[in-house]
Amino acid sequence: MAFEGIRTVFDAFRPGRGARPGVYELARKAKKLLEDGENDAAVAVLRKALERFPGHSSLEDINHFLGQKRLRDSLSELQHVAEEARKVYVRTARAYADTDNTQKAIDFVTVAFRRFPECPELHLILGEIYLRRYLEDRLPEDGRRTLESLERACRLDPHSLLPRKYLAGFYARIGCFSRASEYLAALDAKNLDEEEQRYIDELRNYCLKHTDQTGDEDVEGCLAAVWDRGEFAVNCRDWASPHPPTFGRCDLKSVTVPFVVMEMAAKKCVKLPRVAALVAQNQIRSKTTKADDLELATADLEHAVREVASKSVEACHRMGLGHVKRSELKTTMGPLSLHMFADTWLGLLFKPDSSTTQVRTVTQQCLDLVAEGVGEIYESDS
Amino acid sequence: MKAILENLNRSVGVIGSAVMTDDGMLVTSAIAEGHDQDALAAIGSSLVISLQKSLKACRDAELKVMTIEGSRGKIVIVNAGNVFLLVITDSTIALGPTMLDIRSTVDKLGKMISLDG
Fold first, then answer.
1. Any chain A CB within 8 A of the CB of B94?
2. Which ipTM was obtained for this model?
């Protein structure tokens, strides 16, 4: 038994002499593999070596190092994946917020908070949703939630400009002038364009003049006062207010037309008379089906359709005209008819000399085809 | 010009109207009380500029008429040569008869601009 032990030690010190490699050679081999980045091969060598020389300090050192390295690699990979997931959550939350489907957006952000409670972008998106709602209805409850979300976004990202700008405008609007001037002062250091900076300076002067010197400003009181009066203390117009939702109609949630249905309908519709092209779009995707003789560049047409859609929604929203049902354009490249559903829209471009009756008839046929497609999906779902 | 717009605003269902240049500058506007004149100007100019720009990219296309139908009202934009006429109506009216009034306003504006020129 003692002889066996001596032989093991002896073997360990005589590498490369026809016998099995010794412990130091194995350790060296494992180290080399590790240096070359071949972790799996290194682990295999180390495992075999440890079977032969259990507890040997050289091997244990490498083993420990390898364990730490794998842990570090895994953690860094996990961090990367988490960061990517966070970006996807933020993007999706932004998409929900932009479809004017406020409740769905709030629900989604609330779920996202469970995974990323410290994500400033998510707090900012939630703050924007509540701020948009507050600027429309002036409900104190929405005001409180706006403050909570935006102040948290500021705290989590000390360099972010947008939540500070919103807060400055919010406090000015509700008449908390002292707090407003603090945030306005903080905006001074940021690189804003000249016109905006001038507006901020004017607003700040106004706020400083009207600051209540007697004591602390009562936010709750200010929110209640705005609600009672039905108007803001200062009309900041569009400054420091979130953009209106870019797309979609919350009152037509039931009319959801999946993108794929539009794509399929477009293939059929393009064969109808006078149709030059169909553009199916949602906030992320865009697909154009063109008639063979149309020479217009797809990207230009898609851009035009997206502009018409977003500007129509913005115009109706700002003028208080509700949600866009359709937009119709007569242009020198032909009539363009745009139909909006919950979060998708369909643009139909007709040939230049098409009459109004032709446009109406064919448009109706296209919409019928889309409706058929939606019906088929609902039937197969049920 | 304002008188022409005020005359148009007397048509059934018309809430307000504005004239703007093709680069989005507001020339004049007239809108019923309780509606935001500044918003009308801002929206009009933003719509005209961005539509002109995106249509220009489509083989130099130009806007003739645009109607946006919202659930609570409609917006009509008509190209009147050097200027654009923007009209806001309520949602209940049929645009056909109102379009006649709009067309006649466009003619009046065209004449006025050519006289000025």
1. no
2. 0.90
